[in-house]
Amino acid sequence: MLPYLVHIHLYHTEFWPELRDALSVLEGTPYDLYITFNASADGLKERLEREVPNARLLPVSNRGYDVYPFLCVLKEVELSRYSYCIKLHTKRNMPLEAAPWNGARWRNLLLAFMRPSHFSRCVREMGKNRKIGMTGHQDLILDWEPTSYDFRSRVGNLLNRTGLSLKEYRFIAGTMFLCRAHLLEPLKKLGFREDDFMVPDRKVDDERSLPHVLERYLGCLVIAQGYTVEDCFTTQPTRRVSKIECCARTCAYQLVRFLYQNKITKRGDHIIKVCKIPVFVRRRKKDTTAEE
Question: 82 CB contacts (<8 Å, ≥6 apart)?
Fold first, then answer.
């Protein structure tokens, strides 16, 4: 069996031990580990050299969240040399307004496939069913959007650039997954460069930026090549959402956000709104720095 390609983007360094421990599921399995990190992080490279001496360390610019660093890794490798690709990154706790994914639940769902019993089941199921191309937790496999923004057209345009078409809109929110390595080849052909990605800034609404488009593109790319995006490890089969349910969810989401919002703004302020009217505001004394 060919080795695995493993990429970890390390931005929130306090979560490094969690990802380092997750690699234990690969014990006995050959893999190449690539770790990308902010080039300005003091002392981090030396620490990684001590703790994971066999890893390939790539300092990168703070652009494009975890997506641009992933592209940097793909440029370094020949995907045909690998059987699977594992993509991981550090993820801070989600803010209050991100219910039902607030707090650490978001990160726990993203990393669920790396739990020992789950991971072994993923590999086993993907070995039996050669049409499963990508796997992650079913609560993060989405084929609907709580937004009116037309991501589908941008994803379709990217697929068309490599001779593919949008067959089904389906992706893993948060971009942590296990997938068949060769399915990522068209992504390399898009030829994105560093200048195509902005510097993350919580003061700026970048919800529609290129990394968020590519987040959706990755799942659609797998499906466009005749494979599926499935949950291989939970007891319940992955359920597809109908168009009617998608519309109902979107309307419900927008209604709830209109009636009540308890959020931390991009400036770090805590605001509670009722019918979009602020009823509580706590200003943060110092602006937060750019984060993922």
Answer: 2, 3, 4, 5, 32, 181
